[in-house]
Structures are given as C-alpha cells and as structure tokens.
Amino acid sequence: MTLILLSLGLILLAAVVAIVPISDPRSRTTLSVAILFAASCLGLLPCLGVLIGQPAETFNASWAMPFGSLALRLDALAAFFLVPIFGLGVLTALYGIRYLHHATEEKNSGLLGVVSTLFLEAWFSSCWRPTACFSWWHGS
To answer: What pLDDT, in 10s, does the model give residues 103-139?
Structure first.
C-alpha cells in the first residue's frame, strides 16, 4: 500500500512541476513526464502483485471525520481497476514526452500538463472512494 500512496503523491508532484516557472520549458516538461512515468510504474507493482495472488494490502489512519477511520484496501477488484489506470499513465507519459516538447513553444503547455495529470489523479481516486466512505459500515 505504501507504493500506491507514494504513486499518488508523485502524480500530484508531476502536476506541480508542470507549472513551476523554469527558464527552460523543455526540462520542466521532461521532469514532469518522468515523474508521472515513475509514479505509474510504482503504482503498477502492488496492483500486479495482488492480481497474481499476493494478499490484499490495507492502510488504516485515524482522522477527524465521524464514524471511524480512513481505511483503504487494495484487493483484487481494486487492482483490476487500477491496472488500466496506471497502465494508461505509463503510456500517456511515453506519448507525452514527444507531444509536450512540441507544445512547449505555446503559452499553455504547463497548464496542459497539469490538467492531464490531475485528470489521472481524479480517475485514480475514484477507485478508492467507496472504500474510504463506507469502511465504517463494515466495522473497519
């Protein structure tokens, strides 16, 4: 579960790097895409492990919300949905290297990187929402 959470943080970092004002936009783009590629690869590892038979991974944290703690679980069903997301993240990063280098001359290339990265983050987070919101119902 640590790799999944690290991947989530790296995806957010890639979005931040995409808008950081660096004098060379090509290096900013390359760094953002490299971080997204690394995050997607890291996220694939535990998902594929669970799909080939490793035990489900869990994460529990207390928080100020009523009805219990935050409980995340990476089981086979969650991994089934996360593998295409992380796989598309890898493919998007590979495609984005060439595509965004052509777009660096435009003013909004950083914004394009942020929007695409945050879209991946939102898609990723949608797989966790039922577990996070309803874990208290099952007594977790």
So the answer is: 655 555 555 566 666 666 666 666 654 444 444 344 4
pTM, two decimals, is: 0.72
Tokens of 11: 């995806």
Q: What is the identity of the amino acid at 23?
A: S
Match 């493919």 to its residue by tokens.
91
Alpha helix ranges (H) inside the chain: 2-19, 25-51, 76-103, 109-126, 129-134
Residue pair 7/39 in contact by the 8 Å Cβ criterion: yes
- Number of other residues whose CB lies within 10 A of the CB of residue 117: 28
Query: Residue 73 to residues 58, 85, 126, 134, 135: CA-CA distances in angstroms?
Result: 4, 17, 13, 12, 10
Do residues 135 and 69 touch, judged by C-beta distance below 8 A? yes
Neighbours of 95 (CB within 10 A): 12
